[in-house]
Amino acid sequence: MPNTTWKKGLKFSFPVRDRHSNDINFRLECRLDKGNKRFVLRWQDPTDLDPLNGKKKSKTKSFKDYESAFQHIKDFEFREDLRNDKAKSRVTFLSESQLREAEFAIDTLPKEISLKEVAQQFVADLPNKEATINEVYEEWIKEAKRSGKKKSSISSRNDNTKSFRKSFGNKLAHKVTFKDVEKVVYQKLVNGNEPSDQTIVNRHSGIRALMNRAIQKGYLKKDGNPCETFNGFSELPSPSPSKTFLTIDEARSLIKHATEYKDGVMLAYFSLACFSGLRPFEIHGGAFKSPVGADPLSWNDINLDSSSPEILVSEERAKTRITRWAPLQEYNHNLQILLSYAKDLKFDLITTKNFKQNWRAVVKLSNLKFEGGDADKCRRSFATYLYNKEQTFADIQLSKIMGNSPYVLRKHYKSVITAGEGKKYFKIGPHGKSITRKETGDWKLQKKMKKFRGLTMADKVRSAPIGITFHDPNTGDVVESQGIDIDEQE
């Protein structure tokens, strides 16, 4: 590449062949023209002869820069090539550069496809309106709130796209490239460390969802998401979430310190986390992030005194946006004992004030760390140990309890462990100690006695063995015993 900077007296030569195969030499020289620096182009056209002497006429053209002069030569060469190929001459408003690009496009296309067809398809895929990334995001969030999306879902959209919006928020959606996205997805953390595979995937997932929304709204052409590999984005790491779960000793330690820390203020939370199968958010209702606006479970959501006790998970709390009941059955009767113990401590089921600090304190005292993929460690422990304890459970049955599909259950939650571990896990009681048979029997008896005290004399007689007759002194009615179990009387 020659030095194209203007320098007085500097000359260039460009040999070109015209349509008649005549050689034409274009000479470019740096000269001063009335004090102005110019690139002066000179050449002789063999087809333009002087009528007096028959000699080729000399032609001159002045340019401000080298590039313009060079383009003039290339355009001349292009026109001569077209004429040499006997192309039909037509009047056109296209520039020389546009004609050159069209020729290149036609040569590139397969013979059975026309340039017109390609152009029509391209135009059909173009966005029909424009919006910046920030505008798309605001619309996305507004729609999420209007449709009743969970606060955690909206917060996740904000967190996973924050850096992207900070860097490219004012850029039009259809002008964002895969390189823009990669710059954000792979950028280092604030402390200078490389992001984990999971962080990379989370960032990419958030931005990809935002750009998909831009496609749905017509701000981006179909199949134009810059987060897709077919549009140039590099392959993502594939972090396979490890199926980590609590060991028996870890679970004992967690419940022990939850019982003892601040007189048991966190016992109900960690009991539910380990033995109910509920998601953390379904329990604390956002209190981990902030007590303001949090909507945790309360004692009113758990009917402990019922013959079939259950935990209500409202659609506002449920990740799947479907109300469900998490059962308290024989397989996790230890949870009923733990919750009864916690209720007697006179705390709210979930104390939102300083919840995050209390949570961290209990975890630290237990010598545990719940980071990254370990966030679901307690819930994963429930699924793993329950499957081990109740092997007659079908995947579909366990998935209903968990609120997941059987596929997600198998992929993320169920793990294979030694036989008998499930029974040990579901015997963990207050202070992390194993609940004995006697304690279980005493608890069941107390539960019956408590319910028995709430029955009328007539109902008590009905629960007695068949053959006993009771005369009600108030009404004079005669009630005969029917042997109805107290638990069946509501």
Largest sheet, strands/sense/barrel: 4 strands, antiparallel
N-end to C-end Cα span: 94 Å
Give the helices and strands as they follow along the chain: EEEEHHHHHHHHHHEEHHHHHHHHEE
Q: Which of globular, elongated, flat, extended, rod-shaped describes the shape?
A: elongated
CATH topology name of the largest domain, in short, is: hpI Integrase, Chain A
Task: Give the helix tally.
Answer: 18
Mean pLDDT: 81
Beta-strand content estimate: 5-15%
At the first level of CATH, the class of the largest domain is Mainly Alpha
**Major beta sheet, strand line-up:** 1-2-3-4
In percent, how helical is the residue content? 40-55%
As for the number of domains, it is: 4
Integer-rounded radius of gyration? 39 Å
Describe this structure in words.
There is one protein chain. The chain is α+β, with helices and mostly antiparallel strands and about 500 residues long. It has 4 domains: about 10-90, no CATH class; about 135-230, Orthogonal Bundle (DNA polymerase, domain 1); about 250-430, hpI Integrase, Chain A (Orthogonal Bundle); about 455-490, no CATH class. The protein contains 18 helices and 8 strands. It has helices at about 65-85, 95-110, 115-125, 135-145, 150-170, 180-185, 195-215, 250-260, 265-275, 280-285, 335-345, 355-365, 375-390, 395-400, 405-415, 420-425, 435-455, 455-460; strands at about 10-15, 25-35, 35-50, 55-65, 310-315, 325, 470, 480. The protein has a 4-stranded antiparallel beta sheet with strand order 1-2-3-4, covered by helices on one side. The protein is elongated and about 145 Å long. The model has no long low-confidence stretch (mean pLDDT about 80).
